[in-house]
Amino acid sequence: MPAPLRLAFSALLGMTSLSAAAQQAAPAPAASAEVEELIVTGTLARDRTLLDSPVPIDLLSAEDLARAGAVGDELGQAIAALAPSFHFPRQSNSGSSDHVRAGQLRGLSPDQMLVLVNGKRRHTSAIVNSETKIGRGTAAVDFNTIPLSAVRKVEILRDGAGAQYGSDAVAGVINVLLDDDPERTDIEITLGEHITHNDATDRDITDGETFTLSASTGFALPNEGFLRIGLDVENRNKTNRAGFDQVPFFEDPGNAYLAGRRNYTMGDPNSEAYGAWFNAEAPLGALMLYGFGTFSERETKGGAAFFRYPIGFQNVRSTYPDGYRPKTRADNQDFSFTGGVEWTLAAWAIDTSLTFGRDELDFGVDDSLNPSLGTASPTRFDSGAYLFDQLTLNLDGTRDLDVGWLDTPISLLAGLEYRRETYETRAGEPESYQAGAFLDCDPSYATNPTTVSPCAIGAQAGPGLTPADENELERDVVGVYVDFAADVLPNLLVDLAGRYEHYSDFGSRVTGKLSAAWTLAEIFTLRGAVSNSFRAPGIPQDGFADTTTSFGASSTLVRTRTLPVDDPIARALGAEDLDAETSFNLSFGATAQLGDISASVDLFRIAIDDRITLSERFFDDGVNTDFVDYVSTLPGGADVESVRFFTNAVDTLTRGVDVVVTYDREALGGELGFDVSFSYADTEIDHYAETPSELTDLYSYFRLVGVEETNTIETATPKWKTVVTVDFETERWLALARLSAFAEAERVFNFGGGFEPQQTYGAELQLDLEGEFRLNERVALALGVVNVLDNYPDRSIPDITYFGNLPYDILSPVGVNGRYLYTRLSLSF
Fold first, then answer.
1. CA-CA distance, 717 to 746, in Å (whole number)?
2. With contact defined as beta carbons under 8 Å apart, do 643 and 614 qualify?
């Protein structure tokens, strides 16, 4: 065992031995009862479990999530390790996505999945992921702002639910339920690091050292009320899996001496995060007061960016004689608070709640340069800020209605919702975007100014938002909804829901859902649902703008502007106002309980019209300059090399199946569990919108949505994923093995001029192991390994590695960091 982990293991063992002799052994753990636990998501019926629910639901307990081996206790990664329908790729060299990661359900976009906390809508991130592959162009909920230690369980509704929960619930709903234990105190310390052999460089590497600490406690309040609070701390060092630089052919020959070095980086940035949360209920006479909230502050530094060579228009040699690699950074503050009151009015149970959420991300770059400012340029820049606020007011009433022709009452819910969303972008400091007068970065510019570019303008890897990019948007949403659930026959549950929502900025939508569960002989249930859902354009998508560095013609780097649809440049290229996505969902399945074995199979079909996506990137083909020449004549078009914008450009069809089989029994003096889950989702584009003439007049081969965005939607996400888990638990020991298998995935680039390299990356396996020893009922020590076999994704072909520097692709479901070892000390009082 490497020295850092050996020392940590010894320290933790010493701490636990102090109290071992004084404690009684814990009783043997009870058999798993997840399939019998009542669910609260997806149906109004109050007596439903996983097997007799009318819609498919996954239930992930706090114990399951804690043993998922999530690096840095990331909630998103923990969910992805357990739920095959959920993907949470670990991005690198992806701009803001190096700092804010997005998850996806059933292979659809991250913003087509609604996230709830204790049943209340969660706000999204303020940042639009413009450089990621999975989830490009989306502002998604940041799962990692919810502390893992705060979670009691997670329910994943794998079905469209717009009529029940509103916009965004196209692929399904994830409901995070917070811990509500009024008495227990928990402390958990985890230490880990990557210990791997990197095949791209043939090196043994130890990095990514990670420390996490969580502490939570509960207090009983009068009349069975409770208050539970918690704190979390996480510190993680960067990783790097870059290859050896071959130096691009288009760089100055004087840079050749840098060949063979690791000038780039590929992996995770340094991260330091703090979190706090609470969950409470307090009866007050006939009222029940409740509240819950989370706070997170995360600072990440060292995000991967492209190296700038010494001789060239992106450098001032007196500042960086040997070139430089800028390092992006982000300071992300996230806050959410819900307060509510429940009471009874006649036969109605009333629930009134107010939820406010805010996410703010300040973006910047270190070790950088604005070359056009010459030696006067700073090397550290604040590039801008993004803020998103969401205020939601709900008034819900539920009651039972007695109907003469039914043996049981009808459960009725009726409600009103008002939501206000505001979005703001703020400019960076002037030096991050200013164009200076310094023109001789490239030594040949003075003698050949017509063919050699002058110094680059703006902070490299983080050009700032300009005052013209600043935006303030707001919208109001009003919704009215109703839901009925009844056992129309002794063994037939029917749930019918409807919703009307009006948006101040694009209009109204009506959605409905019918679902049913028919139980036969108490061991077999048929279930199905039909619904329509919608997704309003995210308000950040309406107002987001940024500038990033992307591949252009012949693999060269160009500055790419992502523009809102009302920008003059976007309008001149044919951009139109965004409309809502609409979907039609069908699902049909069956569940069974046969002794110790439970199983479910669910088929689904999701048709989405007017799907919102980013357009293809538009830039010159490396020979002609028609595009740049045209854009330079438009307001704000100076120095713009590449453009993309949001569009309702495609209709898609997603079809798939989910299978879950569990087996639990007593064996060898303990409890043996065996779980197999499988998810398959195939998305195809049914229809492409016509490319505007404004684009085809510039270049006939321009397409509103081309090969890159088609790849993002159809083939970048593995079509299937399987998770097989075996665990054996006694009063003292727990042993767990988890094998995850992922289908192949494809990556396609558009480098212009018909050069579109693509690669299919093969199926992948990942084996995780964990062993836990309970010294007594209060102290447990675990040792685990994620990716035991030290598996790396397929190496990228030369056309995609950017001259050997980026040997792996960012869409890999197993990541690029290799094996991860950790040890965890858990204390409970």
1. 8
2. no
* Nearest of 124, 103, 223 to residue 172 by alpha carbon: 103
Count of Cβ atoms closer than 10 Å to residue 633 Cβ: 9
Q: How far is CA 486 from CA 14, 403, 494, in A?
A: 57, 10, 6
Q: Of 550, 126, 93, 125, nearest to 327 (Cα)?
A: 93
Number of Cβ within a 10 Å radius of residue 505: 16
Q: How many domains are there within the chain? A: 1
And the tokens for 66?
């804690």
The span from the CA of 457 to the CA of 479, in Å, is: 47
Are 292 and 177 contacting, i.e. CB atoms less than 8 angstroms apart? Answer: no
From CA 462, how far away is CA 382, in angstroms rounded?
8
How far from 674 is each of 163, 671, 677, 729, CA to CA, in Å?
Answer: 35, 10, 10, 12
Closest by CA position to 386, among listed 543, 535, 547: 543
CATH of residue 584: 2.40.170.20
pLDDT tens for each residue of 501-546: 999 988 899 999 999 999 998 899 999 999 999 999 988 888 887 7
Residue 14 CB coordination number (10 Å): 9
Domain interval for residue 489: 3-828
- For 173, the enclosing helix (H) or strand (E) is strand 172-178
Using DSSP, state whether 332 is helix, strand or coil: strand
- Per the listing, tokens 């995070």 go with 176
- pLDDT level of residue 449 (50, 70, 90 thresholds): very low
Nearest to 136 by CA among 812, 814, 811: 811
> What 8-state DSSP symbol labels residue 144?
G
- The token duo for 709 is 């965005």
User: Which tens digits make up the pLDDT trace of 196-220?
Assistant: 999 999 999 999 999 999 999 999 9
**Chain centroid to CA 785:** 23
Determine the length of the chain.
829
- Buried-exposed string 222-250: b where 16+ CB fall within 10 A, e elsewhere: eeebbbbbbbbbbebbbbbbbbbbbbbee
Rg (CA), the chain: 27
Q: Whole-angstrom Cα distance, residue 477 to residue 498?
A: 16
Residue 71 contacts residue 785 (beta carbons within 8 Å): no
How far apart CA 685 and CA 573 sit, in angstroms, is 23
Q: State the CB neighbour count (10 A cutoff) for residue 253.
A: 9
Q: How far apart are CA 127 and CA 122, in angstroms?
A: 15
> Do residues 208 and 268 lie in contact, with contact meaning Cβ atoms separated by under 8 Å?
yes
Spatial CB neighbours of 14, under 8 Å, sequence gap ≥ 6: none
**CB 493 within 8 Å of CB 45:** yes
What residue type is 790 in one-letter code? Answer: D
Confidence of residue 623 (pLDDT cuts 50, 70, 90): low
- Across all residues in the chain, what is the average pLDDT? 89
Residue labelled with tokens 């020979």: 623
Q: Write the Ramachandran bin of 610: left for phi over 0, alpha for psi from -120 to 50, otherwise beta.
A: left
The alpha carbon torsion through 216, 218, 219, 223 (nearest 10 deg) reads 150
Task: State the burial class of residue 478 (Cβ atoms within 10 Å of its Cβ: 0-12, 13-18, 19+).
Answer: middle
Tokens 């919810």 — which residue?
A: 146
Residues 6+ apart with CB under 8 A from 382: 362, 363, 364, 428, 429, 432, 464
For the residues 80-99, what does the mean pLDDT come to? 81
Which run of H or E residues covers position 562? Answer: strand 557-563
Identify the bridge partners of residue 196 per DSSP, sorted by sequence position.
205
**CA–CA distance, 276 with 286 (Å, rounded to integer):** 30
d(CA 757, CA 16): 55
> What is the pTM assigned to this prediction?
0.91
Cβ atoms of residues 93 and 266 within 8 Å? yes
Q: What is the identity of the amino acid at 230?
A: G
CB 277 within 8 A of CB 178: yes
